[in-house]
Amino acid sequence: MSAHCQVTGKSPSFGKTVSHSHRRTSRRFNPNIQTKRYFAPSLGRTITLRVSTKGMKVIDKRGIDAVVAEMLARGERL
């Protein structure tokens, strides 16, 4: 699976690693993606989400039902 957060949409960014001799090579900055299970009372079941740690904070702040409703409005599968 790709390193993509289902809540925030955060995905890898790209840059360069610069060595001591100033030689540049490409690298990839992955977001901190975790697989987490939540119980959604609006759906009446548990759902498994691939979320970043920032996405977990969003769920804690806004609530799982609000986040799930927004995801379903976007047409994302749960």
TrEMBL record:
Q: InterPro entries given for it?
A: Ribosomal_bL28, Ribosomal_bL28/bL31-like_sf, Ribosomal_bL28_bact-type, Ribosomal_bL28_sf
Where do the record's region annotations for Disordered lie? 1-29
GO molecular-function term, one example from the UniProt record: structural constituent of ribosome
User: Superkingdom of this entry's organism?
Assistant: Bacteria
Q: Give the compositionally biased regions (Polar residues).
A: 8-18
- Its Gene Ontology biological processes? translation
Record keywords, A-Z: Ribonucleoprotein, Ribosomal protein
Gene Ontology, cellular component aspect: ribonucleoprotein complex; ribosome
Similarity comment: family membership: Belongs to the bacterial ribosomal protein bL28 family.
Please give the name of this protein.
Large ribosomal subunit protein bL28
Task: List the source organism.
Answer: Bogoriella caseilytica
Which gene holds the coding sequence for this protein? rpmB
